[in-house]
Amino acid sequence: SVGSYSCSCNSGYSLNADGKTCVEMTPAVTLTAQLPMTKAAFKQQEDKFITAVAQSANVASDLVSVVSVTEVESTAGARFHIQAIVCDVVTDIAVPAVPPLLTQGTLNDQLQAVNLPQCTISAPPTVVRRAASPSPDPSPSASPSPSPP
Known about the structure:
Blueprint: E1 5-8, E2 13-15, E3 22-35, H1 39-44, H2 46-57, E4 64-74, E5 84-93, H3 104-113, E6 120-134, E7 143-146
Antiparallel strand pairs: 1-7, 2-3, 3-5, 3-6, 4-5
Helix pairs in contact: 2-3
């Protein structure tokens, strides 16, 4: 009956949002970069940003994905007046370890090469585990576990 069971996944998998299937957790390097541009301007040039990140990490562009873009209004030094609009861009690179060449300097060199503004890496590259696409293999799917009475 409804509520009499809960689902769990094997090690290395996470329960999908549907509550019924499991997705594999894969390692990725994530970094947060801040660029002096609006979210709309970034979205128009997102492909250039992905290319720059890929080149600075020495990986293929298809291993780089933008996870989120958040527009932030800075009022630093002013009283209730917006001084600047920047975007915090969270990016994942599908590799198991932080590439040694992935630094703010190398990223800014690559951004300049594709005519994008310099960035500030506001969160250093770190390895995280993210959910991959749902597995077609039925073996890692969620298995109901009876709830205790």
